[in-house]
Amino acid sequence: MNNFKLKNGSGNLCAQSCSRQDKQLNTYDYMADIPGHNDESDMVEVQFKNTRKGYYRNSNNLKLEKGDIVAVEASPGHDIGTVTLTGRLVPLQMRKANLKSNVEIKRIYRKAKPVDMDKYNEAKKKEHDTMIRARQIAKDLHLEMKIGDVEYQGDGNKAIFYYIADERVDFRQLIKVLADVFKVRIEMKQIGARQEAGRIGGIGPCGRELCCATWMTSFISVSTSAARFQDISLNPQKLAGQCAKLKCCLNYEVDDYVEAQKRLPSKEIELIAQDGTYHFFKADILKGLITYSTDKNFAANAVTITRKRAFEVISMNKQGEKPASLLPTGHPKETKISADLLEQESLTRFDKQKKGTNNRKKKKRKPTTEQPKEGRAATPNNNRKAKEAGNAPRYKKPTANKQPNEKKQD
Q1: Mean pLDDT of the region 67-82
Q2: Quick one: DSSP state of residue 40?
Q3: What is the pLDDT of residues 198-247, one digit of tens each?
Q4: Nearest alpha-carbon partner for 271 in 332, 340, 324
Q5: Number of helical (H) and strand (E) elements in the chain, helices listed first
Q6: Which tops the pLDDT comparison, 409 or 321?
Q7: Residue 278: beta bridge partners?
Q8: What is the mean pLDDT of residues 129-151?
């Protein structure tokens, strides 16, 4: 019986071909278990910070596996990256990336040494502070741009500044100032809002990591027509992602909705029955259920039927017949329709003040300082009010008038 070991490389079970790394755009090497797979090509795919990848030639015939940290050729100096793909799949990835054959391909120097890693870690620690300082410099130069990220080269000799701008920006003066401040070679790269979200990362409303930060390699334009085909409310707050653009996931299921919508009758067709004329109100496209209403603007006498029943009524109307009801014979009449709760309620319903509450606060009586009227005896209640005012007279208990002692009759 053969003893298989979990190990990278040809002829063994690949433990990291589909593993999750700390990098984005991970590639699944489904041919990693084939013997001699790594010897098919001397090209290697190396990934750097976030979404930056490069393809290098293994001219020194190093035994490289997925996950190895290598030092590659850069201009100037060298850079540090992680091997993400080897073997015969690399030329396919290069073809997918539209790399031209006449482009000079750089080479891999060696596997990273401890000295290389120390320089690499030292350079990475400066990235955040450099980004904050660069933003302030761009603001002082009155440039309409936003610096979203900074990436230092592995040896710390060059820094790449990723920025976003709606219009063309003349950053020649900015490059001079940045070079004088940070003492490195400066390279500016413009990216879009979706690419910035992919570099920063985050959690989407679905509870998973952003698609642009995990597996998406190219960004396709998203239009509002994708939301219309799926009958999604055109609410900008719901349709926009963290990049303030339309969510990429709107394109995932739009093809299925388009195909399912072709099997439904047109929204312009009216259904005529003996109890009235029904207009299209809404539809559950994937389930094939259609809701018709006797009013065009709101749900009045709404009836939900299947698409099969809708085509039956349409064919009957073409022949001049009117069914007694849109519902098929023997079907119980529906009194309720499924509707979106957000459509029925107002967003400001909690802002209204409640009327007629029983927990009204009693008005406090103002303390009085009036003295008791003449001829009127002071009472404990009046004295208590006066005490609250600070000038309460002492209360003396009234005494009964003593009658003169009558002389005892002899």
Answers
A1: 89
A2: G
A3: 878 888 888 888 888 887 877 888 888 899 888 888 888 888 988 888 99
A4: 324
A5: 11, 12
A6: 321
A7: 271
A8: 91
| Sign, Cα dihedral of 44, 48, 54, 57 | negative
- CATH homologous superfamily of 121-196 equals K homology (KH) domain (3.30.300.20)
The DSSP bridge pattern shows strands 158-164 and 185-190 to be: parallel
- The residue behind tokens 């440039």 is 143
Q: Where are the domains of the chain?
A: 1-110, 121-196, 220-261, 271-336
* Contacts with 379 (C-beta within 8 Å, 6 or more apart), sequence order: 372
Is 9 a residue whose pLDDT tops 50?
no
Query: Could you say which DSSP state residue 334 is in?
Result: P
Looking at this protein, which amino acid is placed at residue 282?
A: K
> How is residue 64 written in tokens?
């490289």
Cis ω before 328 (30° cut-off from 0): no
Angle separating helix axes 127-140 and 172-182, nearest 10 degrees? 140
- N-terminal to C-terminal alpha carbon distance within the chain: 144
The CA–CA distances, whole Å, from 243 to 126, 163, 199 equal 25, 14, 11
The predicted-structure confidence for 353-383, as pLDDT tens digits, reads as follows 555 555 555 555 555 555 555 444 445 555 5
DSSP 226-256: HHHHTT----HHHHB-TTSSB-GGGGTSHHH
Looking at the chain, how many residues does it have?
Answer: 410
